Amino acid sequence: MTAISCVSLVCPVGYTPESAAAAMRASISVFQELLYRDINGQPLRGARVEAVPAETRGRSRLTALARLAVEHIDEKIAALLPWGEMPFLLCTRDAGMPGARINGILSGLEVRGGEPLVGSRTFQITHGQISAFVAIEQARKLLNERNAEACLIMAIDSLIDARSLSWLDSRMRLKTSQVTDGLIPGEAACILVVSKRPILEGALRLRGLGLAIETATAGNEEPFRADGLSAALKAALREAGVHLHEVAFRISDVGGESYAFEELVLAQMRNMRKTRPEQPLWHAADCMGDCGSAAGLIQFAWAEQAFRRAYAPGDLAALHGSSMSFGGRAAAVVSA
């Protein structure tokens, strides 16, 4: 068994997993004009964490997000975890995407009580939107190979960065005054604990996990059939021992691009073998935009809260991750 618990989530709509999930459930969005402008000189809209000043940029912004995430860990939860002993996995943007440097952003961070956040064993996962899924798969291996009680996964990302925004804008992937079919930038920091047995009350159970590569990306002309996401979802369902029609609801990291919505539909069609009256699809980006490498962990946090607070429409959820520019695809099946 693999148990997953969210211990901290700082995002534009909340500074705890509970408040963020409540806001997403109520479809509360916080989009506003940013200090940045598009190629045509028009203001960009996005969702930022208000506790971090708008003038804070680059690595300083990532550091501030990381610090907020650590500061908002509940003391009772902090007391139950073996800080400093857990292998630490840091999820960041894709290696090929421009953005702020991450070296030193976790330096000196301590959990309440003086425990170090980062232990002696650290790993960096540079797979963008699917980093959470890759990190959980690596955490499962670490738990099996080493005598570790749990692994700590942290994702920090902000698309509210001049380099990231310029890169997206130049590829017409950013929603601007001229491009309506694009993503809205967001930011977040999230911390999960992965363990062989539930350490915290209400933990998720990971039933299945799948990873794949899509050769038809948003930047090439290859025929698009959603082969990557279909394969990842199929692998996750196979490991879970269930069929897609048995899944009650789905959560995705789609940030606003029609290309990504089409992929979700195609992946569903290629894996659904029996009709189902309804299967709701939840999008965190509706409220806070595209949060990059933190988007995956946000899905796990939201699913955990939905099961814990009994508003999930069923016993099983399927989560989806897609790195549109670099081809990574991932899926997971979870339950309470």
How would you describe the overall organization of this protein?
This protein has helices at residues 17-25, 58-71, 75-78, 131-145, 162-170, 227-240, 258-271, 285-288, 295-308, and strands spanning 2-10, 32-37, 43-46, 88-92, 110-111, 115-116, 122-126, 150-158, 187-195, 204-213, 249-252, 281-283, 316-322, 328-335. It is α/β, with parallel strands linked by helices and 336 residues long. It has 2 domains: 2-195, 3-Layer(aba) Sandwich (Peroxisomal Thiolase, Chain A, domain 1), CATH 3.40.47.10; 204-335, Thiolase/Chalcone synthase (Peroxisomal Thiolase, Chain A, domain 1), CATH 3.40.47. The strands form 3 sheets. The chain has a 10-stranded mixed β-sheet, with helices on both faces. The protein has a two-stranded antiparallel sheet with strand order 2-3. The mean pLDDT is 94.
Instruction: Please provide the ordered H/E string of secondary-structure elements.
Output: EHEEHHEEEEHEHEEHEHEHHEE
Mean pLDDT: 94
* Corresponding CATH architecture of the largest domain: 3-Layer(aba) Sandwich
Category from helices, strands and their pairing: alpha/beta
- The H-level CATH homologous superfamily of the largest domain, spelled out, is Thiolase/Chalcone synthase
**Which residues sit in consecutive blocks of at least 5 with pLDDT less than 50?**
none
